[in-house]
Design a protein that fits this description.
alpha+beta; 249 residues; four-stranded antiparallel β-sheet
Length: 249
């Protein structure tokens, strides 16, 4: 009889406790249906895979989710913010690998967007606490940096063989550019050529440069001079210069 008396007391109580404790992200109690579904989701996220170190697991998880490991994007920053300001803010969470400031292609001025690379993915995740942090009179947004597998694959295979010059071509593809390169920098770089226009490839999500552009020249002599500068150094990087092809935007 003692066992029979205990059964109705021990079985329903966990359900009642679960319903009371389960709340959504706004602190509101979940419905009974939601409370039953949620336990099957939560445990799968908590334990790391067997034999995988926590840090390695975090990096692997970031890659699977489409995030670039150890990297975050800070946006909404005042245009007067310097790299030193950003470093001082994020170094609180751990050692930094690099800080890249996105700039307007025409003026070279800071556009309020920065990419911050940490030495570990764990520190990068911790820095997300800065999301909503007020700097100056603006509220900064901090989020994981997403990557596109297709764009990475394209970068690796791009120009394994230089394209041949098409009839009437007066444009050149210029790649491997630093994100900080401006139109003025490129005009100075190709100062021996007559340039008609420069068209930067812009990331639609961030508004920053994608690291390459197309330069239109006034004549064939100017184009040939530019292509001859292939692998010349600009801001510490060997620049790729090749004939543009018609299907390249």
């Amino acid at each position: 009889m003692a066992a029979e008396d205990q059964a109705p007391r021990t079985e329903p109580r966990p359900d009642k406790k679960r319903k009371k404790l389960k709340k959504d992200k706004w602190g509101q109690p979940l419905s009974a249906a939601a409370a039953e579904v949620e336990p099957s989701v939560e445990p799968a996220q908590d334990p790391p895979a067997e034999g995988v170190a926590p840090a390695a697991g975090a990096v692997a998880a970031a890659a699977v989710e489409g995030y670039e490991p150890s990297k975050v994007v800070a946006s909404g920053l005042p245009y007067t913010t310097t790299e030193a300001d950003i470093r001082k803010l994020f170094e609180f969470y751990g050692p930094l690998g690099s800080v890249q400031l996105s700039r307007f292609p025409d003026s070279g001025n800071f556009r309020g967007l920065a990419f911050v690379c940490f030495e570990s993915d764990e520190d990068a995740v911790k820095s997300l606490e800065l999301d909503g942090f007020k700097i100056g009179n603006r509220y900064m947004r901090v989020e994981r940096c997403r990557v596109t597998a297709s764009s990475n694959k394209k970068r690796k295979t791009e120009f394994q063989t230089d394209p041949e010059k098409s009839l009437g071509c007066l444009s050149a593809y210029v790649g491997n550019l630093s994100w900080n390169v401006t139109e003025k920098d490129l005009r100075d770089f190709f100062k021996s050529s007559k340039i008609s226009s420069i068209r930067f490839a812009i990331d639609k999500r961030t508004g920053g440069s994608r690291g390459f552009c197309h330069v239109d020249f006034q004549d064939d002599v100017s184009l040939e001079k530019a292509v001859a500068m292939n692998q010349s150094e600009l801001q510490g990087r060997p620049i790729k210069v090749a004939y543009s092809v018609s299907n390249r935007g």
